[in-house]
Amino acid sequence: MKITNMNLHLPLPKLPTSTKIYVKEIKTQWNEKSLKEGSLPRLSKTQKFLKTSPGQEEIVINVTEYYKICRKKIKSNHGIYIKIKNKNNNTNQYDYPYVITDTI
Fold it and tell me: Which of 37, 48, 59, 91 has its CB surrounded by the most CB atoms within 10 Å?
């Protein structure tokens, strides 16, 4: 099977103003325990910057470019980091890596 496209569907909190989304590559190994304790792995500089409309419920992020990077590092738990910032809601709920839900 050849993967041609991967999209991440990310639900958003309903907010009255636009939201900024920053996508970064995770550059070092991580585990769930460390994340829960507030220790983040080393991250790249922002690779994608997206902005949503007020009230937008979902954003779809194309993450195809990360396929080979993650596949080559099966033993090391790498991935992407997503930060959602909004002047009305700066939550840590979305600070963790996400699972890709749409692979073609």
Answer: 59
